[in-house]
Amino acid sequence: MTTSPATPVRARSIADRLLHAIATPLVPDDYLDLIAPLRSGADLRGRVVAVHPETADATTVVIKPGRSWRGHVPGQYVRLGVDIDGVRHWRAYSVTSPHRSGDGHVSITVKAIPDGRVSNHIARHLRPGTLLHLDHPAGDFVLNGHRGPTLFVTAGSGITPVMGILRNHLRELDDVVLVHSAPAPDDVIFGAQLRSWQEAGSLRLIERHTDSDGILTPDELDSLVPDWQRREAWLCGPTAMLDAFEDHYAAAGLAERLHTERFRPTVITAGEGGTVSFVRSGTKTEVDGATPLLDAGESAGVLMPSGCRMGICFGCVVPLREGAVRDLRTGDLTTATPEDDIRIQTCISAAAGHCDIEI
Amino acid sequence: MTATATATTLTTTTPTSLATASKQGSLNSRLSSSQTARRYEPKPSGKPDPTAHLSAEQVEALARELDELRQQVFDSRGKRDADYIRTVIKWQRGLEMGSRAVLLFSLFPPAWVLGTAGLSIAKILENMELGHNIMHGQWDWMRDPKIHSQAWEWDHASPSELWKRSHNELHHTFTNVLGRDDDLGYGIMRVDEDQEWRPAYLAQPLVNFLNACFFEYGIAAYDMDLGKRLREKTTDDPRFRVDLRNTLRKIRRQMTKDYLVHPLLSGPSFFPTLAANAVANLVRNVWTHSVIMCGHFPEGVETFATESIDGETRGEWYLRQMIGSANIGGSRLLHTMTGNLSHQIEHHLFPDMPSSRYIEIAPRIREICRRYGLSYTTGSLPRQVFSAWKQVVKLSVPNGFAGLASLRRWSTGRVQAAPA
Ligand SMILES: Cc1cc2nc3c(=O)[nH]c(=O)nc-3n(C[C@H](O)[C@H](O)[C@H](O)COP(=O)(O)OP(=O)(O)OC[C@H]3O[C@@H](n4cnc5c(N)ncnc54)[C@H](O)[C@@H]3O)c2cc1C
Ligand code: FES
User: Out of 2.40.30.10, 2.10.50.10, 3.30.160.20, 2.60.40.10, which CATH number does the structure's domain A45-134 have?
Assistant: First the structure.
């Protein structure tokens, strides 16, 4: 699940061996985690320091990361594991805080989406003191040394990675245009800060209020930002907007000028059956919605682990990297995304859409 | 370590999984509860079918009722349950380390007594409420990679991977099916009249006592099928080699911890600490053995003919679980100390339900059993232990008068063919 760089196997010190011998069959970390979950060397976690609303549906969460935190590059996101009703859910959120804030805290800003499990939990129930699970920051939506003329196009919560960049690099950038869309003035996340930068002349802010002015289309760029072609551009917003701008830039032969961040890279819609990929064995097969994935894999010649074939032994559990499955006994749906893969029992799960299975 | 263990299982279980694929029709049948006919495979003893009074429709209705009950509980799993298991983990680890700290001074008798008692309880909790239940996948729904059936390793001679295979897969799928469920007498004892008697069974009270004392090693041995391998001289099988190596490594680590590292840390208290560990392991072994014996051996528990499970439906599987298991009645403390295996019937119906919920559904299962005219075997711990031991002793000799006849037949070399 976490992608840790391969650490060379170092000869363990005598003290370390002793600790392992004392703790077996557990490992020393299992005991230390109970006492000092944020210590260095532990799995990365963070403690919520503060939760405050930004707009009616956006909330900023300030987190004190554990000592293993390696720091982030502005514009990157962090994966967050939140326990809701006892179940851990992982979601990605862009880091919005200044890079070198003296206290070492990081913040993220979350917009509650309709029926969104994690975003609504964060908005309504998350309290200071809560322990969250973190992953190291990742992502290439970063300036990467760029200092020339810049264009940011954002919409809704898409402002978050750009805010992370602006809070850290605005002083080094002397020609910045930000086109930001939100339904109405009050919905603009970080509205006050952005407007004060505009007043101070640090950037040129173009607010687009879509309730009254409609959705922004790429061909409006010519009138809004006449010199857009010579600007390096960073975009973050809904899928439709990103697609439209990518086409526009490609048509202008400027695709490499454009950097995008997709909050929702793949849309998983649950249906009946689908294409199942067994990632490691490189096998692909079409399956209907009534065949257990275990049977589907075996018929396709994949060496599947198995046991009881009736859902009670957990001998068939494999990670579902991405996709949707339906429990053949109960009809319950489970969806997995690259941010939140889930281990499933293949003997009682049928494909409910495309599935990438790690085996 | 987990990674290599998983890799090992993949390569070692694959041949069987492909072999079972050919039989998948019959095994997958348990995913369905639709029931069109009843049937009964008679057992050699000629005992009547305890479910003969149920029609196909009734068995199907029973399956639906149990599925619904399961769904209700599964839908209501939440923070309360997650907090419960994490609290038990915290207490168990605290108790274990606390007891081991006290044992550093075990030269001093009160410290020895206190530390040994604490360590025994910690080991029991670890094996039963934690290890057994977590490895059943009861807590996988939390998606906590550490409290997960694929990751948990327990304080026991048998490596978790191996134990899960023999316990979760074979015992829970083929519960009490003669010839398929090795837990039935662990392959070394006769616990049912329908098992053919052999003179070796005369020693089974002693065998059972020794098995209780060294239970974890007994389990490790039959998790890797040691007895059969030795009998059939197939110990050079590559899969067995891997199992053996993993088991020996696990035993070495366990022994080093209990009988070397912790005693050495105790310095002058070396021998008292070593003894404390030995006693704690013995207490844990006898306790778990007793609880498990109560689950399937007492009088009133049914066994099933080998052929009876071909094409078995979900309802038939449920039936087998209900009348093939027995509960232990008692206090909350007793339930916790048995890892809620005191609710063996509920556990066998829903092996992946969080153990803390069994107590909640027990009255409903009991009511369902009553309504469908099925036995619901339960009794206090002493009563069930006594009853199970009585069976062990009784079945060490041939069945009644017929048994005497079989003894005579045996002595004249005309052994009755065993059921296929
Ligand atoms: C790299 C990256 C960075 C991100 N940064 C941020 C951030 O800074 N702030 C922020 O608020 N969110 C961000 N997200 C989105 C975030 O990870 C979650 O997807 C979002 O909070 C919804 O999660 P949920 O559990 O509330 O919704 P779910 O319960 O997962 O979904 C509820 C419904 O909404 C749909 N849905 C899921 N995600 C989205 C989405 N992004 N847009 C529209 N519909 C969706 C689902 O298909 C489903 O129908 C980022 C995502 C990625 C991949
Ligand atoms: S094979 Fe037993 S749970 Fe899937």
Answer: 2.40.30.10
For residue A329, the chain B residues in CB contact (below 8 A) are: 31, 67
Residue-wise pLDDT tens digits, A251-293: 999 999 999 999 986 677 778 999 999 999 999 999 999 999 9
> For chain B, how far is it from start to end, CA to CA, in angstroms?
40
Give Cα separations from B365 to B81, B84, B319, B344, B384 (angstroms).
Answer: 21, 23, 12, 12, 20
H or E element that contains A250: helix A239-251
Which ligand ends up closest to the CA of A337? 1
Read off the pTM: 0.90
Shortest distance, CA A174 to any CA of chain B (angstroms) = 47
Torsion sign (Cα): A72, A74, A77, A83: positive
Q: How far is CA B245 from CA A34, A215, B8, B135, B252, in A?
A: 32, 66, 11, 21, 10
Q: How far apart are CA A158 and CA B74, in angstroms?
A: 37
**In CATH, what number does A150-262 get?**
3.40.50.80
Is there an atom of ligand 2 within 6 Å of A345 CB?
yes
Contact B276, B115 (CB under 8 A): yes
Q: What is the DSSP letter of A314?
A: -
Contacts of A123 (CB under 8 A, 6+ apart): A53, A57, A58, A59, A110, A112
A155 residue type, one letter = A
Nearest atom in ligand 1 to the alpha carbon of residue A58 is 11
Measured between its terminal Cα atoms, the distance across chain A in Å is: 14
Residues 6+ apart with CB under 8 A from B3: none
ipTM of the complex in this document:
0.89
Mutate to test the interface with B, among A314, A318, A327, A341 (most CBs of B within 10 A): A314
Euclidean distance between CA atoms B5 and B93, whole angstroms = 24
C-alpha span between A15 and B304 (Å, rounded): 54
Measured between alpha carbons, how far is B98 from B122 in angstroms, rounded to an integer?
A: 10
For residue range B344-373, list pLDDT tens digits in order. 999 999 999 999 999 999 999 999 999 999
Query: How far is residue A71's CA from residue A99's CA, in Å, rounded to a whole number?
Result: 8
Per DSSP, the three-state class of A82 is: strand
Domain layout of chain B by residue ranges: 49-76+158-394
**Model confidence pLDDT, tens digit, residues B64-99:** 999 999 999 999 999 999 999 999 999 999 999 999
**A274-357 fold:** Ubiquitin-like (UB roll) (3.10.20)
Provide the chain A residues 6-35 that lie in CB contact (below 8 A) with chain B. Answer: 18, 21-22, 24-26, 30-31, 34
- Which residues in A25-51 are b (16+ Cβ under 10 Å) and which e? bbebbebebeeebbeeeebbbbbbeeb
